[in-house]
Amino acid sequence: MVFFFSKRAETKRKDIPKDDYDEIVKLFKRCDVNKDRKLSWEEVKAGFRKLQSRFPLYRTHRAFQMADENHDGFINVDDELDKLVTYALDCYPGTIKLRLI
Q1: What range does the record give for the signal peptide (predicted)?
Q2: Is the four-CA dihedral 15, 18, 20, 21 of positive or negative sign?
Q3: Got the DSSP string for 34-80?
């Protein structure tokens, strides 16, 4: 059987504009509706919907594979948010400002 995606691809913060990075951080922090500093599956999916993703369920699944290091079903805002934001920016290179209008 051939697997096209590795379980955890390495995410690196390369030449990401600081403005775009900060916008995505704010977006996902606003999605934390119960203010518990953890992003649930539904909260992350809402973030990708705000980014006008055509496949928010797929993006959410991949985001949890990349960012949820302790596999507790939540993305911790303090520890794991950087990986989630890096993944989101890799999905939409150069189009963040247009997606957030």
Answers
A1: none
A2: positive
A3: T-SSEE-HHHHHHHHHHTT-S-HHHHHHHHHHHH-TT-SSSEETTTT
Angle at 19 between CA 13 and CA 20, to 5 degrees: 60
Structure tokens at 27: 């977006």
Q: Please classify residue 10 by burial: count the beta carbons closer than 10 Å to its beta carbon, then call 0-12 exposed, 13-18 middle and 19+ buried.
A: exposed
Number of H helices, E strands in the chain: 5, 2
CB distance 60 to 44 below 8 Å:
yes
Length, in residues, of the chain: 101
Give percent of the chain with pLDDT exceeding 70. 77
∠ CA 33-35-40 to the nearest 5 degrees?
60
pTM, full prediction: 0.80
Taking only the tens place, the pLDDT of each residue in 73-84 is 999 999 999 999
